Amino acid sequence: MKHRGKHLTELLKELHLPMFREYHAEYAVRATQEGLSYEQYLHELAQAESDVRRANKIVRLVKTARLPMEKTLENFDFKRLPLRIRQQAKLLQDGAFVDRSENLLAFGNPGSGKTHLLCGICHELARQGRRVYFSTCDSMVQQLLRAKRDLELDKLLKKLSRFEALMIDDFGYVKQDRDEMEVLFTLLAHRYERGSMMITSNLPFSKWEAIFKDPMTTAAAIDRLVHHSVVMELNVPSYRAEQAKQKKSQEP
Q1: What is the pLDDT of residue 174?
Q2: pTM for this one?
Q3: Of 221, 197, 199, which Cα lies nearest the Cα of 98?
Q4: Residues 121-145: pLDDT tens digits?
Q5: CA 174 – CA 180 distance, rounded (Å)
Q6: What is the pLDDT of residues 92-105, one digit of tens each?
Q7: Are 66 and 168 in contact (CB under 8 A)?
């Protein structure tokens, strides 16, 4: 009887199993040589397929997140931070705060390393398979304003809600415009208890009225962020200033 079934390679291609397709013959030879069972042979192939898919997923997540590629924890100088902040940062890397929809708020002067630190944590979250998104405050506000103008603000908020953690860098860098304040508050209200916000700011809470203009709106915004949050205060000298000073001291 003529065999009418598809060739194994064709079947694996149809099933979208590239690692099975590429290595099934090679692994079969090794399985025979090492006396592996059918189950062990299948497990080896499935593990290879899973590893590649996970690696590809992480690449996609990092790309979608729009994170600065150079700002990872591997090249962050933790020695500059107080021990308490180092311990806090280590605990945050497991992403449990995201599971609890808690916010992560980092305050400090320009150059203190808050952006690099939170971006590094975002990279770790992406490596765990979590959906994160990075934006400067100005860029996020402009996205929201365009969506509001085009009557698509709800659509954008829904899209952003798919990210488990939303990082906004340099919170407070807005042009003191009421429309900007309103869309920014709308975003905070929409994310409240639905997903984590990760925010860096040079402005302490006491100066946030400059962002939201109105004392009640300012209090409402802070209340939503602080209710479920981890606050990190990076009261350290500017890394850029230290580097410039060191460079100058080395000049002849």
Answers
A1: 65
A2: 0.78
A3: 197
A4: 999 999 999 999 999 999 999 999 9
A5: 7
A6: 999 999 999 999 99
A7: no
Average pLDDT score over residue span 35-50: 87
User: What is the residue-wise DSSP string for the chain?
Assistant: ----SPPHHHHHHHTT-HHHHHHHHHHHHHHHHHT--HHHHHHHHHHHHHHHHHHHHHHHHHHHHT--TT--GGG--GGGS-HHHHHHHHHHTT-HHHHTT-EEEEE--TTSSHHHHHHHHHHHHHHTT--EEEEEHHHHHHHHHHHHHTT-HHHHHHHHTTSSEEEEESTT-S-S-HHHHHHHHHHHHHHTTTSEEEEEESS-GGGTHHHHSSHHHHHHHHHHHHTTEEEEE-----HHHHHHHHHHHT--
Pairwise pLDDT comparison (52 vs 189), residue with the higher score: 189
Delimit the domains of the chain by residue range.
Answer: 8-63, 66-242
Q: At what angle do helices 114-127 and 38-65 cross, to 10 degrees?
A: 150
pLDDT score of 104: 97
| Contact status, residue 221 vs residue 171, Cβ threshold 8 Å | no
200 Cβ neighbours under 8 A, 6+ residues apart: 106, 107, 108, 114, 115, 118, 167, 168, 169, 170, 171
**Phi/psi of residue 199, nearest 5 degrees:** -125, 135
Would you place residue 2 in the very low, low, confident or very high pLDDT band (cuts 50, 70, 90)? very low
Mean of all residue pLDDT scores within the chain: 87
Residue-wise pLDDT for 109-121, tens only, equals: 888 899 999 999 9
Decide if 209 contacts 83 (C-beta within 8 A). no
Domain 66-242 belongs to what topology?
Rossmann fold (3.40.50)
